[in-house]
Amino acid sequence: SGNYYHQGEIRKKELEQSCCVLGIPASDVTVIDHRDLPDNPAVEWDTQLLATLVLKHIEAKNINLVVTFDAGGVSGHANHVSLHTAVRYSVCTLLWVPPWGCRVLVLESVNLFRKYISFLDVLISCLLPRDALFILTEEETEQAKRAMRCHRSQLLWFRHLYLLFSRYLVVNSLRLL
To answer: Which family is annotated (predicted)?
Structure first.
């Protein structure tokens, strides 16, 4: 629930506001608030527990595409890495693969230089191998920035730099899991 700084309720509301900006109705937003899955950048979550929760959600909502972090978690955040591990476990161990389930795309983590060269990374990303490449229009980039700004409790100084320079607000390269 994003309760690392005891702001879980605030962050839940910010998430709903952000999703609204992106055109995602609140009824399609699920926040998992589980005592064994604390929001903490130093805690690795239990793979089997998380995989079970994710699978239940996917089945309940009849989801056919999941986009998640890669093994680097984009920022190295332990919770992000745990999510990747759980989804990978689901696909590899629980036989949750097409045609029985859904496809999984993982967002490519890039080095610090590429992460903060904004639209200039489009050229690099076009030349490198990937399964999917999403290049946002100027309108979509502004929409993504508005959505990020809804997370006021998390907008520390370095996240303002992220809003200005991050390639992830312009280009995202993904691989099939």
So the answer is: Belongs to the PIGL family.
Instruction: Give bridge partners of residue 173 from the DSSP assignment.
Output: 133
List of residues 6+ apart from 21 with CB closer than 8 A: 143, 146, 147, 150
Q: What is the pLDDT of residues 116-149, one digit of tens each?
A: 999 999 999 999 999 999 999 999 999 999 999 9
Q: Report the phi/psi class of residue 76: left, alpha or beta, with left for phi > 0 and alpha for psi in -120 to 50.
A: left
Sort 92 into a burial class: Cβ within 10 Å, 0-12 / 13-18 / 19+. Answer: exposed
Q: Which residues pair with 69 in a beta bridge?
A: 107
CA gap 43, 122 in Å, rounded: 33
For 153, other C-beta atoms within 10 Å of its C-beta total 13
User: What are the sequence ranges of the domains in the chain?
Assistant: 42-109
What is each CA distance from 150 to 13, 67, 108, 143, in whole angstroms?
Answer: 9, 21, 24, 11
Residue 160 structure tokens: 């303002």
CB atoms within 10 A of CB 145: 15
